[in-house]
Each structure stands twice: as structure tokens, then as C-alpha cells.
Amino acid sequence: MVKIYNEVIFSILRILKGANNGDLYYDNYLFHLKKYGETFFDVYHLIWAWVIEHKPKRILEIGTRTGISICQLLSAYIDSTIIERIILCDIFSDGFISPELVKMNMKHLNIHTDVINKVEFLIGDSKTTIKEFIKKEPDYKFDYILVDGSHEISDAKQDLENVKPLVAKGGIILFDDIAPDGMSLDPVWQEFKGKYKEEFEWNENYSGKGVAWAIKR
Length: 217
Description:
Elements: H1 6-19, H2 25-36, H3 43-54, E1 58-62, H4 68-75, E2 85-90, H5 99-108, H6 113-116, E3 119-123, H7 126-136, E4 142-147, H8 153-163, E5 167-176, H9 186-195, E6 200-205, E7 211-216
Parallel strand pairs: 1-2, 1-4, 2-3, 4-5
Antiparallel strand pairs: 5-7, 6-7
Helix pairs in contact: 1-2, 1-4, 3-4, 7-8
């Protein structure tokens, strides 16, 4: 996998911090960088590496918040107009985050307007909205899926189960916050891994908040 340097990740975080000073992601990641140094590896590193090598065209994200994950992803393309579809799922209920804020961050990074116009928001509880999506489009598959929504154990389990049939052959499921410096969701991931061990190639990295990923065989 392509090595992604911290400077790439932090450049995007710093730019978005300037656009939205109330967003604390930049400060949070500086903490992890100081703690782990050059071994620091997080979901953003994985996103950049995956996009550079595979250039996914059908994208699903559970847990969008201010849009930094999707902004990191879109920034990794030389030509992001090859993307066919982007679906972002979040409850957007805390009075700070919103679809408008996500799009503002994309525009601040000069993401192509045609790409921003491809974004679809599924607003609501992912345990419900993803099932509704499957009913409407039962045969649709994604080649990139990020699961980073509710960190309650039962919710995280359900999100993984719900997206499992949605990943295309050769596609990837990313699962964030598995380490103690994240939300300690490794047991959820390991249970999911044990259940579907033969269907995916499995990987984990615990240097930071912890990120796991599975590639569909």
C-alpha cells in the first residue's frame, strides 16, 4: 500500500480548521501525532492510500459529521470527476453539523462542483436509512464503504452487518476507532471478522485511534 505522509493529512485538517474554527479535528490529530510520532496511522492515511491505488467510484459513508473524512478522500483524487456516486449518512442532529457545512468544507478545498453535485445525504439513523436504501436499490454495490457512525457497540455491530451485502468484489469496508485511544471497538470488529472470515481479506492498525479494513474477495 502507498505510504502516506502525515504532512498530507494535516494539510487538509489545517485548511479546514481555517474555514471552521469550531472544528477540533486538527487539534485532536495533533495530540495523536505527538503521542505516536511517525508510526501514527489513522483512517485518513488509509483513505488516501486506498484512493491513490484504487480510485473508488461508488462511495458510502456512515458517520459524516463535518465531512473531513469525505474531504480527505476527495482530495486524494487527481480527477475526482470519475466518481459516480457519493452517499453520506448521518443524523446531523447536534446543531453544529449539517449537510451545508459538509458542502462548505468541500468548496473550501476547491472540490469540483460536478463532484459536490453527486453527493446524496441520507439523514437519519443509519440502522434505518441503510436498510431503506437496500430495499430501494437491492442490487447496488459500493467499492468504498466507511463505517464511523454511532460508537455504541450494538449500533456499530448493526452498521457493519447492514453494509456487508453492499460491498462490491474488490471493494473495501473501513471501520474506525478500534483502539483504546479511539472508542475501543476492536471486539465488534473481531466478532464481525470471525463471522465472515472467508469472504474478505482482513487488516487492522492500532497506532492511533485504530482503524480496521476488509477487502471483499
